[in-house]
Amino acid sequence: MKRVITAIVICLCSLCGFGQDRIEVTEQDYANAEVEMADQFRADGKIYILTGIILIILFGTVFYLFTIDRKVSKLEKELGNHTD
Predict the structure, then answer these.
(1) Helices 47-83 & 36-44, crossing angle to 10 degrees?
(2) Claim: this prediction has a pTM higher than 0.70
(3) What is the pLDDT of residue 29?
(4) In whole angstroms, what is the distance from residue 5 CA to residue 55 CA?
(5) Buried b (16+ CB within 10 A) or exposed e, 38-75
(6) With the CA atoms of 72, 78, 81 and 83 taken in that order, what torsion angle do they form, in degrees rounded to the nearest 10?
(7) Which pick of 2, 8, 14, 62 has the fewest CB atoms within 10 Å?
């Protein structure tokens, strides 16, 4: 089983190298002055809505993870008490 997993990992790592083409980086890339979508969102005032939605999703995910962690910890304690 270890050999199969190792072979899969090696194949996946080698595929990552083929998917990346080398693109020349220019001075314009470093300036990053042309972000049309973000500029339009700022101009329309929608950047705050986007930021709010992202924060709601982030906090919801963190809350969900803490809730699941508490439930799993409670179940572990109950199972630990029954086996002793």
Answers:
(1) 100
(2) no
(3) 67
(4) 37
(5) eeebeeeeeeeeeeeeeeeeeeeeeeeeeeeeeeeeee
(6) -80
(7) 2
